[in-house]
Amino acid sequence: MTGTGALPTDPGGLQAAISDLSHPQATAAQLLVHARGARWYGTAGAADPAEGRTVRMTDQFRAGSVTKAFVATVVLQLWAEGRVDLDAPLAHCLADLALPAAFGRITVAQLLDHTSGLPDHQGLPDLSTPEAVLRHRFDRWTPAALIETVEHAPLKFEPGTAQEYRGINYVLLALLVEKLTGRRYGEAIASRVLRPLGLTRTLIPGADPRLHGSHIHGCLRMTDGSLRDATVYDQSAYWGEGELVTTAADLFRFQQALFTGDLLPTPAREKLFTLPPATVRMLDGSPARYSMGLQAATVNGTTFWGKSGETYGYRTRMFATRDLSTRFVLSYTPTALNAPEDMVERVVTALVTG
């Protein structure tokens, strides 16, 4: 394990939070923190269990739904430029898709904050076991095929009246980005976010299932107890909403730029920190917690804004207080399909109480 840099809070607590690779079981973890005016970086485990190499801040990993924060940033940039109306219905914005009439009245804003009411998927493969996940790792999906899996049922609720986190919302938003910019959504992200910020280790991989250069391996524990490498994986099932490959260092830079206005003018940036009205609740009755691109979480009276992401073998948490006085990027590699949030909880507890 390693810990470097000035110590913004209890360094032992931070290192302990990521060093327990048994709760949940994981092969590696890294944590980049800024708090109390200083920065700290620590690691645990191995980037590649077969070789035992220590994790580095510039190692690439799969960040899952953190992708959505990048897509939302581009959509909000386009809104700030007057190229899209957030209140415009999909029937107007994506008329060429020939969506069902009920879908057509969903607005861009309702996709961004997950209040669309889109129905559940039908016809997806059963990925309830690690063996099944690896059997389907090279399945190839198109955006049209993903949309088709939700087209055969009515809306779950009237758009704008409830909130349910759904990746399909961002599939549609990525298609909107492509329509408005005339380029693939990954290239739009690259030209508007990655290159201006110098995020040279972040990319949307497209059809390439491999990670190249220095990277962290994601592994899955099989039902017989054996450990299998799941790093090579076609991410097309998460097109537009979960494909991102990045590093802790790049996410830290993106987080700062997003919160400070380097990427969005003030009216657009406010959308990142505005939740739906109090009358809008999650389907389980809890308060809405997703804004247009981010999510809010309050711990011991401290509210963090950011984005979580996961894909098989990888889990990422990128959160900060709005004033950036406390912020972190946590990336680790749980080996269970549905690992508990123990490590995240330990990190946040160390930050708000240390």
Write the layout of secondary structure elements.
Blueprint: E1 2-4, H1 11-19, E2 26-35, E3 38-45, E4 61-64, H2 67-80, H3 90-93, H4 101-104, H5 108-112, H6 130-135, H7 143-148, E5 162-163, H8 168-181, H9 185-197, E6 219-221, E7 227-229, E8 244-246, H10 248-260, H11 266-272, E9 281-282, E10 295-299, E11 302-311, E12 314-320, E13 326-334, H12 342-353
Parallel strand pairs: 5-9
Antiparallel strand pairs: 1-3, 2-3, 2-13, 4-8, 6-7, 10-11, 11-12, 12-13
List descriptors:
alpha+beta; 354 residues; 30% helix; 12 helices; globular; two-stranded antiparallel sheet; single chain; 13 strands; seven-stranded antiparallel β-sheet
Helical residue percent?
A: 25-40%
From the helix content, strand content and strand pairing, which structural class follows? Answer: alpha+beta
Total number of beta strands: 13
Are there runs of 5+ residues with pLDDT below 50, and where? none
What report would you give on this structure?
By secondary structure, the chain is of the alpha+beta class. Helix content is 30%, strand content 19%. It has twelve helices and 13 strands. The protein has helices at 11-19, 67-80, 90-93, 101-104, 108-112, 130-135, 143-148, 168-181, 185-197, 248-260, 266-272, 342-353; strands at residues 2-4, 26-35, 38-45, 61-64, 162-163, 219-221, 227-229, 244-246, 281-282, 295-299, 302-311, 314-320, 326-334. The strands form four sheets. It has a seven-stranded antiparallel sheet with strand order 1-3-2-13-12-11-10, with helices on both faces. The chain has a two-stranded antiparallel ribbon with strand order 4-8. It has a two-stranded parallel sheet with strand order 5-9. β12 and β13 form a beta hairpin. α2 crosses α8 (168-181), α2 packs across α9 (185-197) and α2 (67-80) runs antiparallel to α11 (266-272). The mean pLDDT is 96.
